[in-house]
Structures are given as structure tokens and as C-alpha cells.
Amino acid sequence: MSRPTPLSGFPEWPPSQRLIEQNVLDHVRRTFELYGFAPLETRAVEPVDELLRKGETSKEIYLLRRLQADEPEDAGEALGLHFDLTVPFARYVRENAGKLTFPFRRYQIQKVWRGERPQEGRYREFRQADIDVVDRDTLAVHYDYELPIVAAEALAGLPIPAVVIHTSNRKLAQGFYQGLGIADPPAVLRIVDKLDKIGPARVVAELVDAVGLTDAQAKACLALAEIATDDASFADAVRRLGVDDPLLDEGLAELSAVMDAASALAPGLLKADLSIARGLDYYTGTVYEAKMRGFEKAGTVVAGGRYDNLAESGADRFPGTGISIGVSRILGLLFGAGVLSVSRQVPACVLVAVVAEERRAESDAVAAALRRRGIATEVAPAAARYGRQIRHADRRGIPYVWFPGEPGAPGEVKDIRSGDQAAADPATWEPPAEDRDPRVQGADPAG
Amino acid sequence: MSRPTPLSGFPEWPPSQRLIEQNVLDHVRRTFELYGFAPLETRAVEPVDELLRKGETSKEIYLLRRLQADEPEDAGEALGLHFDLTVPFARYVRENAGKLTFPFRRYQIQKVWRGERPQEGRYREFRQADIDVVDRDTLAVHYDYELPIVAAEALAGLPIPAVVIHTSNRKLAQGFYQGLGIADPPAVLRIVDKLDKIGPARVVAELVDAVGLTDAQAKACLALAEIATDDASFADAVRRLGVDDPLLDEGLAELSAVMDAASALAPGLLKADLSIARGLDYYTGTVYEAKMRGFEKAGTVVAGGRYDNLAESGADRFPGTGISIGVSRILGLLFGAGVLSVSRQVPACVLVAVVAEERRAESDAVAAALRRRGIATEVAPAAARYGRQIRHADRRGIPYVWFPGEPGAPGEVKDIRSGDQAAADPATWEPPAEDRDPRVQGADPAG
Hints:
Two copies of one chain form a homodimer. Chain A is α+β, with helices and mostly antiparallel strands. The first copy, chain A, is 36% helix and 22% strand. The first copy, chain A, contains 14 helices and 19 strands. The first copy, chain A, has helices at residues 15-34, 48-51, 86-96, 143-156, 170-179, 185-192, 195-211, 215-225, 234-239, 246-265, 327-337, 360-372, 386-396, 433-436; strands spanning 38-39, 45-47, 62-66, 79-81, 104-113, 125-134, 163-169, 228-229, 270-273, 286-292, 302-313, 316-325, 340-342, 350-352, 377-379, 400-403, 411-415, 421-424, 440-442. A nine-stranded mixed beta sheet of chain A has the order 1-5-6-12-11-10-7-9-8. A five-stranded mixed beta sheet of chain A has the order 15-14-16-17-18, sandwiched between helices. In chain A, strand 14 (350-352), helix 12 and strand 15 form a beta-alpha-beta unit. In chain A, helix 6 packs antiparallel against helix 7 (195-211). The longest helix of chain A has 20 residues, at 15-34. Chain A is elongated, with a radius of gyration of 27 Å. Chain A starts with 14 loop residues before the first helix and ends in a 5-residue tail after the last strand. Chains A and B meet through helix 1, strand 1, strand 3, strand 4 and helix 3 of A and helix 1, strand 1, strand 3, strand 4 and helix 3 of B. Strand 3 of chain A pairs antiparallel with strand 3 of chain B, so a sheet runs across the interface.
């Protein structure tokens, strides 16, 4: 059989990069748990009609069918792979509302799938790390600032470039447009959302040509979108534009609350940026979006917002707010740039050499003693000459090689980086703390 | 929209059970890492022709197609969800052989999918935890005992019923059958594999009727299958059956090596059991299989074996051996029996009460101080009366409620289980070690 080749859009990282990913995921998960978010995992599949509640994403869905189905699948029962973690979560809340205690805070770290044409930094299979809070009937506004702070803190603790979360509020923009007398605010939002890509002149031109705004209206919309501040001072800038509307007031109050709290609790991690709109139509208030410093062109790596109407079930309403970290995209970009490294390719801190194949049990015993104290240890694959056994360790970045002593005599442990070698007892020997587990480090871009 | 209902075969566990699952996965992963296995994750999909290299499982595959594909999918490019982690791993090794260092030890903990009709303890989506070692050309026999010991240790450290790994060797059985002059050893294996289910009398009857064995041959096959010992003494029992064959000798030597090492390194965790055959046809030597004590009827929860021919690529051979822990099946059985519990439903150890909504920042500051020292903390959702805030903690099993003091005065922390309350400083207060994180416990079956 010929050698298989990679599938475009379905990344597979070698163990050294998977070590980095696990390290990142452990840190993100630990941060989520420190804030009391409970773990949840939903199944990978949803009924297609659940996935299509928002028609906009229909192109991206992978449908399933059984290779040898006994009968034709009933279209109403067709299953598809989830394309995000928010739609499944909203379904989960509606399905289990009677058993959950509200407000319900959960995190969810899973793969999602999209049948899109793959391109740089875009995958067909990728992992997201989401937190959401959902309540019954109404959801307090303080969650609008808590969630982006948690996400920003999770990322700030990692050896990756800065990820500042840009925040805006749908009510603010929509109220502003209403106050200007604009009939179709969503059409304006969609164009303003492209400011980054097409620039201010084309935004104004499209607002005039495609939505039929006056030049003054279009320029006011642009002026709003260009407001960006590190604190709550954006509100004064908005006021200076001279537009008045009750929904605008609501949006200003909500975004000010977010920025006030962020300035106090997580200075520098959030930014008010009124150009942020988010394409998906289920957001109803605060929205979030972030790019990674130095990788702005690669697009959004964190996104989210408040959805007051996503999880409705009969007369029950479950407003929510959530934020999603694009773990695969972040790591894919950093791996591509060669700016993340790990101190070794395997978990093992020690390789125990084997003196002779019939004495392997002695090496197994040394390894067992080290493992009992939490030191990851591998036993050499074969009783080859020592040079070869040391090379086995060296190739994997395992820092220590243990040579079992003759029966009754102590063994010795060698740091193969320095060459230092000393007698040691497997019941008490400790590696330096920094050698115990693989260490992940940010590095300057190669080359 | 009506309330959604569960999908049969796609389990979704509530956060309290997901906490238990994560605890189990963390322990299993940590054990794998202590033995130096490197992490690997393969994509969820494989080309269908990779999945069909073993035709036997073709009925179980879920195929993918894009909901709105631009052109009809080329059948040769059809993708399916993987149904185990061994076939994708063998493909990964062939694809990346040039970049890997051999012997290559990896663990892989992922979901797999099978389009089977769901039944008790059988899922369509479930998680497995696998370890494998693959080498180039030949693979040393000591891995045949290392892997089941690792899997057995991983499970022995959990609060679950005992899982003793039963071990046999394909060469031993095949050599024995050859020595008896039987023409179709695989046919015999398939029938002997059902000993548990159909009993000895029907095994003998089927061997005579379906395979055409003489009564003496059939009884000898049964006698072999009934040999089970806790150490290497099985070999004497086999010898007493008076059959002679070079392949039988090889099998006996390999299984004896496994049992000798297991008796020394992990007494009681492995058992030689010559009834074990394993249905899948890629195993070539040692095979493993385990049931969970008290849940024997629910079937196999650990399985694996040596596959010398699974990963071949042109002239290159990559013999391997591996073992797989059925994490979802184990937990599904224990959840169903109500024999696993967790000390709380959320990660939070502390709930910080909110005195008044306009003083929420004081509670946020207390929470931040606790989190900085690794104490998982949630802030109350609303400045309700304290009784209601305490009930919020009580419902989730959060053991401590923190009451911020008046500005300048110290706060107090209450253990809501005992009612004990004392002044405390968030910069120094420590919960008892057993309260820091949710604790998982085995429990007697309910009722």
C-alpha cells in the first residue's frame, strides 16, 4: 500500500507540538475552573435542523450517513457534525433545563468541524475552548465583563503574543443608527464589520451605494466605528457625535460597565472598539473579538458575545453570554511561525539504561521507583551499547540517563546535556524542578 | 421550538459526571506520561479506503458529506469517522515514518464513532484511551508485558472495581491447533472466543459440527481454552495436554515472559487466560482483554494485542503492540449503577457573597485574591439576601461562602456544611486540602 498523504484542513501535529497544545489546554482549563466554570462536553453530532436554526452557516456542515445503512436515512433524523460549541450548548440547555441550576456556568473544550475550503489558519477540524453563562429569563450584565476577563487572563498566562479583546455592543451601534434615522441597521453593521479589510473610504462608499445612506449618515457611522479606547472614555466620544436614542443609551451603559470593571480587574486586557460587529446574527448586546499581536491579518482568534434569544424553548427564555478561544488557530499560526518550543519531545525525564537484556528487571525496578515519586521514566528499548542508549535519550530530549549499578551497588545518573554523572538512589533522587516536565517557551521567530 | 430529546447512543453526561470523567482521564493520562508515552492526536476522519483495510468493521463506519457540496464527492476521496484509534495510528506511522524516532511510544485519548445499533454499554460515540509502541522491522517482546502493566496500573489507581487484564497469545493457540493437525485455526479461534457466552458444551459441539474437528480435537481445544493462571504456571498445564509444535513453543515462551514480568512488577494485575482470542484479525501474538469486576456481562472494557503486520508501507514494516481502555464504557456502566460520586458539581471551592450590587467590585477583589493562590472561586450571581446566596452554593456543593467585610474590616468565611464561620484574609486563607478540588469517590451501589 502506498504512503498516505495529509488531508488538507485536518491538521495533525507531531507529539512535540501536541505536548505544547496540551500544556496550553491545561492552562486554559485551569483558568476556567478557577472561575468556577463546570466542565461540559456535548456529543459531536446534532440533528441537522438544530444546526440549521441559523441558516447562515448551512454551507459549512458535514452530514453523516452510515456506510451500510439498513434503510434510507429519514431526512428528519439526519445528523451533522457541530460547527461551533454555542449552538450545541443552547440545545443542551433547552433539553436539560429542568435538571440544571441557573445561572449555569460551563466551559467546553472540543473539536468542531466545518466543510469550508481550507486556507492559511482555517481548518476543517479544529479545537475551540468556550465559556458561557446562561440564566433563566434574565442574565445579569456583570457576566458581560466577567467572561472576556476570564478569556483574556487564560491567554495572558501563556507564552504567546498579546491577545487584547476588543469589545463593543450591538445595542450601541443599532441605537446610534436608529438615532440617525437609518432604516436597515443590520445592513450597516455588515459593511462596517469589513472596516479592517476594505478601509474607511470604501466603507463610506458602500454605505452610500448599497444601503442608500446620505453622505452625512455614512460619515457618522464611520466616525462611530473609528472610536477605540482603553477605558470607558469611548462614551464621551460617542456623545460628541450628537446622536440620541434610548437603545444607544442602553448600549453605552452596558459597554461602560464592562470597561469600568475591566480597567479595575484586568487593566490592559480589554479595549472598547466600536468597529466590532460580529457577523453571526444571534448576538444581541455585548460582542467580543480579538486578534493576536503580529498575526492580525490571520483574523479573529477569540470571539463571542451576548445572545438573549438563542436558547428559547416554548415560553422559557435562557439568555446567555459566551466567549470562544480558537485554540487550533492560535497554535497553528504560532507553529507556522516557529515561535513556540518545548524542552523535549516526550514526557520522560529519565531514560533507564539496560545493562543486559536478562537484567532488564533491574532497570524496570529503578523506573518503578522513580515513577512512584512522579518522575516520568522510560526504560531503554534494548541492551545496546551505552552510547546508543544515550543517543536514544538525546534524540528525544530526555535530559537524564540512569545506569543501574551492579547488584548491591548504587546506580549513577548522568545529565546528558552537561555530562555530569553521580551516584544516585532511585528512592530519593530528584531532578531540578525545571526538568521534571516538558517546558513550553515562546521563542523569537526563527530566521 | 419544541424541547430537544437525547440521541440514542450519543451519551452526554451532566457536569458532575463530566467532572468524574475528567478526573479519570487526568489520572490515566498522567500514568501514560509517567511511562514516557508521548501524546498524539489524529484527525477524526480517515479516507474510507484506510478504514476499510480491515473489511470486517465496514458496517460500523459513518461517512461524511458536505451539506452543500459544490460538486459530487469523488468516491475515492470519501471520508469517514474513525471507529478506533489503532487504524488511524497505523496510518499516521506509515505517513510520518521518516520524521518519527523509533521505537515510537504514543498515547492517544480520543472519541471514536461506530454506526452500530446502540445497546446497554454500547455507544455510537465514545472515548478510548490507547497506548501503543511501534518499531521498525522488529519490536522487542518486553513491550508485550509493559503495555498491559501500564493500562492495569492506570485503572488500579482509580476508585473503580478491579479490572484484571487477561492475556493470551495467538501463536500459542494457533501452534496448538496446528500441532493437533487442525486445518483452519482461525475458525476454531472464532468459536473458542465465544466460550464465555455459549459455554463449554456448545463450544465442543460447534467445533465438531461447524469446523469438522474430531471429538478428541475439540475437547483438547476446550481444555486449552480453560487454562487460566495468575502466573507462568499455565505453561505446565499446556505441556500436560501433550501437543507439540514450534509455533506453540514460541507462543508459550512469549506469554511466559509476559507473566513472569507481570508477577514481579504488577502482582495480581494480569492473568494468563487461554480462552482469550480477540475477534479482529490483525493481532499476531500477545492479546489482551479485560472485564470489570461485577460488570462481566457488560463485556470487554480493555482490549489490545500485538500487530506485526498492520502498519506496512512498501518494503517497510512497523510491528506494533497496543492496548485500549474503553473509558466511556467503564464510566457509563458505573454511572448507570450509581457507584461513582463527586464531592461537588462545580470546580468552585468558594462562593464570594455580594453585599450590594454596587459593591460587587469588593467581591471580585476577594475572588481574585483567592484565585491567585489557586483556589477556585465564583462570585454570587446577584446581591440577594444571604440565605439565597448560601443556597446558590449549597445546591452546587460549594463548601465555603465568603462574606466581604465592611470597607477596612476583614471578611468572614463560612463552612456551610458545619456552619462554622470565622474572620479570614483572602490573601492567606487556605481551605483544607481535601476541599480544594472536587473529590471523586467510589461508593456502594445505591439501593
